[in-house]
Amino acid sequence: MSSAPEFDPLHPDGGDPRSVDVNAQYAGYEYHYIYLVFCAFIVWLIIPGIGLLYGGLARRKSALSLLFQSIVVAAVVTFQWMFWGYSLAYSRTAGPFIGDLANFGMKNVVVAPSIGSAVIPEIVFCLYQLLFCACTVQIVVGGAFERGRILPSLVFGFFWATVVYCPVACWTWNPNGWLFNLPSLDFAGGGPVHVASGWSALAYAFVLGKRKTKVEKLRKPHNTTLVFLGTVLIWFGWFGFNGGSALNGGLRSMYAAFNTNTAASTGALGWVMVDYIRHRGKFSVVGACEGAIAGLVGITPAAGYVSVWLAAVIGFLTAIVCALCNNLNDWLHIDEGMDVFKLHGIGGMMGSFLTGLFATSAGKQPLPSSQTSYPLPCPPSYR
């Protein structure tokens, strides 16, 4: 196998394909970026999954607008990411808090080795991280459902991604970021994705105020089947979300995928157990779905750092804590009907805390070269 490609400052775009074979630099490492492209494709399924989940939880008259919003939010974020989002988060000349505009308008984002991994072309890395941003914005706008209008939500999503997601992603995953250099442990986005989106959705709901409809009519999902289908797509997409965050096709990514399924499963069991006790022997499909999502949220920052049994504990504990916050809206006197803060804000904080508590010394170190084809030490956030 040839040596890993190196970034050439004289050719930041990776070379002119009319005069050189730009694929040759990745000879022997193709499966790494092919695997990441596959992960990106399945992460995309989370976007309609969230739309179906929100549509099922809302009232019937709001379901279609939430499905529509899931698609157009992805479109707006794609434009934002190409315009300046990617550069603000992942430019090589970024400061400790935010990137510059070195890659404004996708400048030089072509086939050079990416900032995240020397064996991943930058265009592939950019696509994968774009979908992270799109999923996060989609989660946030759930805080405005049945109150915020679609056009203002799209404008909000564009600027939220710019002033919140991109800086936090830069802190966490850019090698120049201040959290990256502590180093912090956040394998796939407990902070940038879940904590940021959960607290932002809470603020969004607080500013918009409560709906005027009676509370009893607001809390009943109009279509449990849509909730179930959305959860299935989210669960499936999360294999790419966590598994791909290793940024290689090595064994750590396989381990992260196993931990993802484990935490979702124990999360569903934990929430169902709470529901069974609370409702005196009755089960809830919606509760099982929310528990699975809570487990996925909890394991996101820990997926590549913990053993499989600790992943089970993280999913179980996160789901129980989120389920016990069932009356959170009443405590805070807000109307946040999609439970974004409960699942993502509280679940993300639980997952981040448990990552620090349970991360193993083996999980925090790169795998030996005899066990993985990944040629360079992984950045701490991607090990």
UniProtKB/TrEMBL annotation:
Question: What UniProt keywords are attached to this protein's entry?
Answer: Ammonia transport, Membrane, Transmembrane, Transmembrane helix, Transport
> Chief location of this protein?
membrane
Gene Ontology, cellular component aspect: plasma membrane
Q: Which SUPFAM superfamilies does the record associate with it?
A: Ammonium transporter (SSF111352)
Q: Which GO terms describe its molecular function?
A: ammonium channel activity
What range(s) does the Ammonium transporter AmtB-like domain occupy?
Answer: 36-362
Q: Which InterPro entries match?
A: Ammonium/urea_transptr (IPR029020), Ammonium_transpt (IPR001905), Ammonium_transpt_CS (IPR018047), NH4_transpt_AmtB-like_dom (IPR024041)
Q: Does the keyword Transmembrane apply?
A: yes
Gene3D superfamilies xrefs: Ammonium transporter AmtB like domains
NCBIfam families in UniProt: amt
Name of the featured protein: Ammonium transporter
Species in which this protein is naturally found: Coniochaeta pulveracea
